[in-house]
Every structure is written in structure tokens, then in C-alpha cells.
TrEMBL record:
It holds the Pfam family Peptidase_M1. Residues 542-859 form the Peptidase M1 alanyl aminopeptidase C-terminal domain. GO terms for molecular function: aminopeptidase activity. The keyword Cytoplasm does not apply. NCBIfam families: pepN_proteo (TIGR02414). Keywords: Aminopeptidase, Hydrolase, Metal-binding, Metalloprotease, Protease, Zinc. This is Aminopeptidase N. It comes from Lacimicrobium alkaliphilum.
């Protein structure tokens, strides 16, 4: 691939590599500040017209290069080094020095706490040695690690351990071999001292796989859930997709310093400890859920990602969209499918829709990239998963499986494209997906406008659907998409008929007629969030009510209730000092509270107000202050109106001793919602109740529910509970992240000086991404009042911080800027304040490529 002057890479510029590397031997002499890396590659020229070999490399100290054993000189290039006039086939040996201790970008080889570890996706391997750092170059690896034995009793790399031994001066070594050819982004090593949990898994063909989980010393008791989750994921993938694990050993290492969630390195996953460690006292139900889903995600990559990988990074969604879809299916099978789905829909509406309408809009298969790390996005991951889900909807469960079987059989061992995937789906099902492919190349969120009429005389329901995608920052012209539109016809009385089906919307406008509908009916559209689209549809209150009461699908009922509440909030935001709860909401809440015991988690979701972010996405422009205020007013009215109900329901929901088990999880979820309303009641009684709930709690879920409720309402009780909490947990960094986040999210006139205090806290460190996210991430993403202060001081605060963080860890800095570049819906005044800060960044001379790409697009 060539890079143009601006440093932008284009999908259309892809060319296959002129060289292949069949085998790679790597030797690491691990030292804190000076690790010596020796790389020996077996290289073959594929394109005879090519005389030079260009290798990628970054922040390396080159010691020497040998071609077929003869020392050679090289030229340094912008990307790395160039070897001129290389033979058709040769052995290349390169020696480099790297500095793991001072690597705070956490890409390549770095130290997390006391341990050496690596992160090579997407382009971290070039920080380890000069190499063809691209996913379509696949080699077999042999890796020798040499390190001090006392500090690093464990020496780990991909594949199988084939030899080990002692070395001089208290050092020892280990030799690993991975029999599966892989791209360099899947390479990993770990050296350090850990506690280890062992287990085994017997695969469907009877192979015994050793499972090993490595955690910080003293954390063994917190590793059980991750290991159990791994075994569930392994069994599920066999049963659901016929995919079996392929090595004799599967290792997972938890580290504290990690830029993202986790990494699927072949046979040696490296995880952010947040997605591994859990026990009742320190982890919430949400943490347990996340661990199960991330463990599964990385495991599922073994087939969708590792055995079949991406041809180039524009194809990232090939493995990420598909693997997210697979982990979503898994989660739905492990817990309540409807609740899992509701939470995915929220992510799409809160974050992906915002990305799609902002300056970083891109298709799930981007066509232009400046910094690849910026494209590990909600669009590539979550919208990518929605696109796979639509294929699943269009082809059906067994058709999708046929397509998967074809894909795996055809491409095992290859580096392929998104198009290859769709082709396999198409061929296995003899279905024309040519129009569907547009989802891969078109960005933006389609809006489906709905016109629905029931005609009494003809006993007919006519449904007219129109699709439109507005231009996005990256693409001005949009075309109609192939959209599966789930619908459910519901009679206003709740009687028959009930009709559910999926319509295939392929034109800009289509009309559907349903016959034999004798009684007044309405239709719910886009049921189950059947496509990543927005709706332009305002059913009458009575129609929404009918859907809430009578629709067969839980997600559809939830969606309708959220719409009813949203409309009330929007109405409130247009009037001043609304004091009356609308009749429709009275009836809705009365009804929901009445049936709370039947489906506690679903009712909890329905009782909760749509988030500020979700509300914003439903409007062209927002009056931020009015919207926040309206949401608060409505919440307070609901709290007061149903005060007795919240209290009574809360009392009924208490659990026995904690276990992460579905019925308990659902009860805790609902009891947390009750608390959030009770905290709005300014009464001694409710304060007492919150205090007691805190004292009584034997688990982190209930404890955090109390703290969140107090925080959201800014109760003085919050401070005293938080002090107690800090005293209990000050030595536990994962729990302290929750404490930091609670403080950083608090809407408070002094929120900026609060942030300063947090960053001066002894447990805070700018070098640790989890800490940074819990303080600055929470502030920028969720402390809406504080971040969007009218005087612009919130924006300035974030910008000052980004200037500092960018020189430490550009990847994390570029994530934190997200809320500041999505400003188009805000008022002119705030937009101006934001642009001032973006200009400051833009003019900064040493801004990273990560931030530069975003800032430049936002201006
Ligand atoms: N492939 C990993 C996952 O989805 C994410 C790694 C991304 N790393 C990065 N530096 N962008 O689990
Ligand atoms: Zn992934």
C-alpha cells in the first residue's frame, strides 16, 4: 500500500506484498530499558520486478542487518528501512534494541506493573523489529525468551512450549513454537511473575486442552469466573458453529496497563485485568457480564480473526463485526436475550449514531485511514455486528450457518476481505446480496419514515416505508440500502390478529398492504432493532400504548415505552416549569410497576428514562440546558407520583446471599432503578433507606446502585458514603476506578476542581489507561453539565489534559476527544467554544497522528 502525502492510506491503493515470509525466529533478551531483539526471517520474492525490500519499523535502535549471513547496510525511510537489490530468496537477520520501560504508548513491547507484555494489533509489531507489518504476510513463529528468572518465573509466547533451560547470571529461557502461520499482529509474549489458575477443556473430538489463567499475585480467587466463562465459550462455539479449538494450550494473562479491552493473540490472550478479575465484593453484575462476553469474544477470534484473518486493515470489520455478533449471540444464550439486545441497541443509539453523524463518520469498511487505531470504532465493531445480524435475519439461522461453514471451509489459513465473507454467504444460499453489500461501503444512519393507515372499509392496513440517508462528513451521495425491517401488527384492543414479519426494504419507497385486519390496528416498525436505522414515525399515544401492552416481542415493548417517555421529555423541554405528569405516563408507570415481579429486568429497562445521549440522537439540534432540565423534572415527578410504589417494590426485591445468577441479577437491576427514583425524593425516610441499603449490601452491584443514585441527585449523603468506600477499597485499583468514575461523573458547580483533586490522588496515574478513562473519560462522556459548561471551561479542561496525555498515550487521548468533536447538534455558542479548543490542539506542533486526524476532520 502506498501512502499519499497527507499520510492517508486508501483501500483502493491495496497491492499484494511483493515478498512473503514463511518462517520467523525471534529471540528476546529481556531487559527493562534495553531489550535485544533478534529476528531471523525466511523471505521469498513474489514479484520479480521488485528489487528493494521496504520494512516497517518505529522507535527501534538498529544494531545490524545480515542477508544470508553477510552484514549489509540499509537506508532509513519514513516508514522504517529499505534493503536494495535483495536476492529472490534469502535469510534476513536483524538485531534491534528497544526500551520497554519507557514505552507508555502501550503498543509493541512494554512493562505493565512488573511484567513484560506486548500489544501488536494493529501496527505494534513494527515497534519490536523491522518487518512487513501487514496482516496478509503470514509466517510460522519460533520464539525464544531469555529473562531474569526470579523476576520472571513465567516466560510465555504463542503456541506450544518446546524447550526451556537455565542461563547465566540467574537468567533462564523458554522456546515456543506456533504451528499455525499468522500475521505479526497476533504475536505475543509475556514474562513476569503471576499467580496461575489451571483447568482443562475436552474438545468435541476428545482433545484435552490445558487452560491457564495468569493474574497478579494474590488474585487467584478472582479468576474463577473468567475461567468458567472460557469453558462455556469453548463449548458454545463447538455446538453453535462446529468450531473446535486447535492448540494443546490456551493461556489468558491479565494485566493492569492496557489500552483496550483485550487481545486475541494466538493461544496467548492478553487482557485488561478489568475483563478478568471478579468476585462478589468487588465486581458488579455488569462486570461479570462483561468478563463473560470479552473472554468469549477473544476466544471466538481464534476462528474468526486468527485462522481466517484480514487481508488489510480496511477489512477490520471482517473479524470484529463478525466476532462481536458471535459474542452477542453467546451472551443472549447465556442470559436474558431481550435484555442483552436492549443494551446493544442503547450502544448503537448513544454512541454509533453519534459517530455516524459526526466528523469521523466512516463505513464499517473504511476506505481511507490516517491512523488505524482510530478505526477500532463503534462503527466497525458494533455497526459491523449489526450488519452481520442483518445477514443472519435475511438468511435465517440455518442459512447463516451454511454461509459460515462455506466461509471457513473456503478461507481457513487465509487473509481475506469482507467481500469474501459476503460471497460465501451468497454462494452457500444462492441469494443475491449485491445490494446488501452497500452496507460495507456507505456510512451514515438511514432514516426510515413510516406512514401507516388502517382502513376499516377494506379491513386493510397500509404501510408506506421511505428510506433516506443524510450526507455524512465523508460521503455526500447516498443510495438506498437493503434493509430488513421487522414489523409487528398489533390491534389496539390487544385481540387477534398479531402479525410479525420481516419486510425487505430495497427501494427508496415501498408500500405494503396487509389484508384481513378487521379491528383498529397499529404497527411497530424496526422491531428488535432489525437494522441500524432511525425511525421517523409518530404513532398516536393510544397506538404506542397498544404496542407496549400487547406486542409479543420484549424489545419492541421496551422501545415503545422509551418513545412514549422521550416524547414527554421533549414536550417538557419546550415549556417552562412543567408540574403535571402526563396522563399517558401515569398509566404507563402504573401498569409497569404493577407487573414488575413478572419480568423484573425488562420492567427495569422500561422504567428507566432514555439517556441524554439517546435523546440527543433523536433531534437535529438540541437545547442542551432545556433537555437536561426536562429530563430531571420528569424524573422528579415520576419519583414523587409513585413514591410509595418505589419504596414498596424496593423492599420486596431484597436478595439472599450474592450469586451471579439470572434471577438475582434481574432483581438487583430493578432494585437499582427503584433506588434511583427514591433518591429523588427529598425526604428523611428515603435518605435513611439509601443509607441502610449501603450498609446492608454484601456485593458491589447493590453498593454501586446506592452510590450512583446519591451521585445523580447530588445528595450530601454521597460524600460520606464515598469516604467510607474509599477507606475500604483504597488498595484495590479496579474498585478505585469505580470510585474515581463516580466522582468524575458528579454534576457539581465545582466539577473542574473536583477533577483536579482526583488527578492529584495517590492512586491516580496518567500512565494507566483505566485510571484515565475512569476520570477524564467519565467526565467528557457522561458529566454532561460539567463538560458542556457554557463558559467553555469544561472543553478547555479536557484540551489541557489531552495536550499532556497525547505525548504519553496518543491512542487513549484520541478516544477521549470523541465527545468534543461531535458538536454539530449544540448551540452556536458552545460550538464556538469547542472550535477554539480544537484550534489550540491543531496548532500544537507535536500532536500525534491519532489526534491530528480527528481534530483536522472536526474543524
Ligand atoms: N482485536 C482486539 C479485540 O477486538 C482489539 C485490539 C485493538 N487494539 C488496538 N490497539 N487498537 O478484542
Ligand atoms: Zn475483537
Amino acid at each position: 500500500m502506498s501512502s499519499s502525502q497527507s499520510g492517508t492510506m486508501k483501500l483502493s491503493d491495496y497491492t499484494p506484498s511483493a515478498f512473503s515470509i514463511s518462517d520467523l525466529y525471534l529471540e528476546f533478551d529481556l531487559q527493562d530499558k534495553e531489550t535485544r531483539v533478534t529476528a531471523v526471517s525466511q523471505i521469498r520474492k513474489l514479484d520479480n520486478s521488485c528489487t528493494d525490500l521496504d520494512l516497517d519499523g518505529k522507535q527501534l535502535t538498529l544494531k545490524a542487518v545480515w542477508v544470508n549471513g553477510i552484514e549489509t547496510t540499509v537506508t532509513h525511510t519514513e516508514q522504517g528501512i529499505r534493503l536494495t537489490d535483495v536476492p529472490d530468496q534469502f535469510e534476513l537477520k536483524i538485531e534491534t534494541l528497544i526500551d520497554p520501560v519507557n514505552n507508555h504508548a502501550l503498543e509493541g513491547l512494554y512493562k505493565s506493573g512488573g511484567a513484560f507484555c506486548t500489544q501488536c494489533e494493529a501496527q505494534g509489531f513494527r515497534r519490536i523489529t523491522y518487518f512487513l507489518d501487514r496482516p496478509d504476510v503470514m509466517a510460522k513463529y519460533r520464539v525464544k525468551l531469555i529473562a531474569d528468572k526470579q523476576a520472571n518465573p513465567y516466560l510465555l509466547a504463542n503456541g506450544n512450549l518446546i524447550d526451556k533451560g537455565e542461563a547465566e547470571q540467574g537468567r533462564h529461557w523458554a522456546l515456543w513454537e506456533d504451528p499455525f502461520p499468522k500475521p505479526c499482529y497476533l504475536f505475543a509474549l509475556v514474562a513476569g511473575d503471576f499467580d496461575k489458575l489451571d483447568d482443562t477443556f475436552t474438545t468435541c473430538s476428545g482433545k484435552q486442552v490445558k487452560l491457564q489463567l495468569f493474574v497478579d499475585k494474590g488474585n487467584v480467587s478472582r479468576g474463577r469466573h473468567a475461567l468458567d466463562s472460557l469453558k462455556k465459550a469453548m463449548a458454545w462455539d463447538e455446538q453453535k458453529y462446529g468450531l473446535e479449538y486447535d492448540l494443546d494450550i490456551y493461556m489468558v494473562v491479565a494485566v493492569d496497563f492496557f489500552n483496550m479491552g483485550a487481545m486475541e493473540n494466538k493461544g496467548l490472550n492478553i487482557f485488561n485485568s478489568k475483563y478478568v478479575l471478579a468476585d462478589a465484593a468487588s465486581a458488579t453484575d455488569q462486570d461479570y457480564f462483561n468478563i463473560e462476553s470479552v473472554i468469549a469474544h477473544e476466544y471466538f477470534h481464534n476462528w474468526t480473526g486468527n485462522r481466517i484473518t484480514c487481508r488489510d486493515w480496511f477489512q477490520l470489520s471482517l473479524k470484529e463485526g463478525l466476532t462481536v455478533f458471535r459474542d452477542q449471540q453467546f451472551s443472549a444464550d447465556m442470559a436474558s436475550a431481550a435484555i442483552v439486545r436492549i443494551n446493544q441497541v442503547k450502544i448503537m443509539r448513544e454512541h454509533q449514531f453519534a459517530e455516524d453523524s459526526g466528523p469521523m463518520a466512516h463505513p464499517i469498511r473504511p476506505s481511507e485511514v490516517m491512523e488505524m487505531n482510530n478505526f477500532y470504532s463503534v462503527t466497525v465493531y458494533d455497526k459491523g455486528a449489526e450488519v452481520i445480524r442483518m445477514l443472519h435475519t435475511l438468511l435465517g439461522e440455518s442459512g447463516f450457518r451454511r454461509g459460515m461453514d462455506c466461509y471457513i471451509e473456503r478461507h481457513d489459513g487465509q487473509a481475506v476481505t469482507c467481500d469474501d465473507f459476503v460471497q460465501a454467504m451468497e454462494d452457500a444460499n444462492q441469494k443475491d446480496l449485491s445490494l446488501f453489500r452497500r452496507w460495507y461501503s456507505q456510512s451514515g444512519t438511514p432514516v426510515i419514515s413510516v406512514n401507516c393507515q388502517w382502513h376499516q372499509s377494506q379491513q386493510q392496513l397500509r404501510l408506506e416505508l421511505t428510506q433516506n440517508t443524510a450526507p455524512t462528513a465523508d460521503q455526500s451521495i447516498k443510495q438506498p440500502l437493503h434493509i430488513p425491517v421487522g414489523i409487528e401488527i398489533v390491534t389496539l384492543s390487544g385481540g387477534e390478529p398479531k402479525i410479525s414479519e420481516v419486510l425487505s426494504l430495497t427501494e427508496q419507497k415501498q408500500t405494503y398492504v396487509f389484508e384481513n385486519i378487521p379491528s383498529p390496528s397499529t404497527v411497530a416498525v424496526l422491531t428488535g432493532f432489525s437494522a441500524p436505522a432511525k425511525l421517523n414515525y409518530q404513532p398516536a399515544e393510544a397506538e404506542l400504548m397498544a404496542v407496549i401492552l400487547h406486542a409479543s416481542d420484549a424489545v419492541t415493548r421496551w422501545d415503545a415505552s422509551q418513545q412514549l417517555i422521550s416524547e414527554a421529555i421533549f414536550k417538557f423541554s419546550q415549556r417552562d416549569n412543567e408540574k403535571e405528569l402526563p396522563e399517558s405516563l401515569k398509566r404507563l408507570f402504573q401498569g409497569l410497576l404493577g407487573q414488575a415481579h413478572t419480568e423484573p429486568a425488562l420492567i427495569a429497562e422500561m422504567l428507566e428514562l432514555p439517556s441524554f445521549e439517546t435523546l440527543s440522537q433523536q433531534q437535529e439540534k438540541i437545547d442542551l440546558d432545556a433537555l437536561l432540565k426536562a429530563r430531571k423534572q420528569l424524573k422528579a415527578l415520576l419519583a414523587v407520583n409513585f413514591a410509595e410504589h418505589w419504596r414498596a417494590l424496593f423492599e420486596k426485591l431484597s436478595n439472599s446471599a450474592y450469586s451471579y445468577e439470572q434471577t438475582q441479577v434481574e432483581r438487583r437491576r430493578l432494585s437499582g432503578v427503584c433506588l434511583s427514583y427514591l433518591a429523588c425524593l427529598d425526604s428523611d425516610e428515603s435518605l435513611e433507606l439509601l443509607q441502610q441499603a449501603y450498609e446492608k449490601s454484601d456485593n458491589m452491584t447493590d453498593t454501586l446502585a446506592v452510590l450512583k443514585a446519591c451521585q445523580a441527585e447530588n445528595l450530601p449523603l454521597f460524600d460520606s458514603l464515598m469516604q467510607d468506600f474509599e477507606q475500604k477499597w483504597h488498595d484495590d485499583s479496579l474498585v478505585m476506578d469505580k470510585w474515581f468514575a463516580l466522582h468524575a461523573g458528579r454534576q457539581h458547580p465545582q466539577s473542574l476542581s473536583n477533577l483536579q483533586l482526583l488527578m492529584a490522588h495517590s492512586r491516580y496515574s496518567i500512565n494507566n489507561p483505566n485510571r484515565v478513562r475512569s476520570v477524564m473519560g467519565t467526565f467528557a462522556f457522561y458529566n454532561t453539565e460539567g463538560f458542556h459548561r457554557r463558559d467553555g471551561s469544561g472543553y478547555k479542561f479536557l484540551t489541557d489534559y489531552l495536550l499532556e496525555l497525547d505525548s504519553v498515550n496518543p491512542q487513549v487521548a484520541a478516544r477521549l476527544i470523541t465527545p468534543m468533536i461531535q458538536y454539530a447538534k449544540l448551540d452556536e455558542h458552545r460550538q464556538h467554544q469547542i472550535r477554539l479548543q480544537l484550534l489550540r490542539l491543531f496548532e500544537h506542533k507535536t500532536l500525534s497522528r491519532d489526534l491530528y486526524e480527528k481534530v483536522q476532520k472536526a474543524l
